[in-house]
Design brief:
Length: 133
């Protein structure tokens, strides 16, 4: 199947996305294994809409010490679990838009993983500087 990006800044598409997120969260509200959803998991991030090279997300688990952050570019998605630096998720979104094949531990993707972790660290440094004012 083909993979297409939608314009998430279109009000009609925003309504569809909000409804989809609400429905998915409602269906899974009692799932103890679910820690959160990213808007980017909907396959609907058009880089050309605002010129960003990447989008970021972070999640701190309520009532636990789980903490993760994510960077997504046009081609890649990396999820980094701060409490488990030896484990993460890395997906080639062109070859695997459904994020089925985690490439994190495969040595041939170490350069990509390193570059995305660098982008994520730089984002955190910028956010820290903003937070300090």
């Amino acid at each position: 199947g083909s993979f297409r990006f939608i314009d998430i800044f279109d009000p009609g598409e925003q309504q569809k996305l909000v409804a989809q997120v609400k429905q998915t969260c409602l269906q899974n509200r009692d799932n103890p294994n679910l820690i959160g959803y990213y808007w980017t998991d909907l396959g609907a991030w058009p880089r050309e809409s605002d010129g960003r090279d990447a989008v970021f997300a972070e999640l701190a688990g309520r009532g636990s010490n789980a903490y993760l952050n994510m960077v997504r570019t046009q081609d890649w998605k990396l999820v980094h679990y701060l409490d488990h630096s030896d484990f993460g998720e890395l997906y080639n979104l062109n070859a695997d838009p459904s994020e089925i094949h985690n490439l994190w531990a495969q040595p041939e993707y170490d350069a990509t993983k390193t570059e995305l972790l660098k982008i994520l660290r730089e984002w955190h440094l910028r956010q820290s500087a903003i937070d300090r004012g």
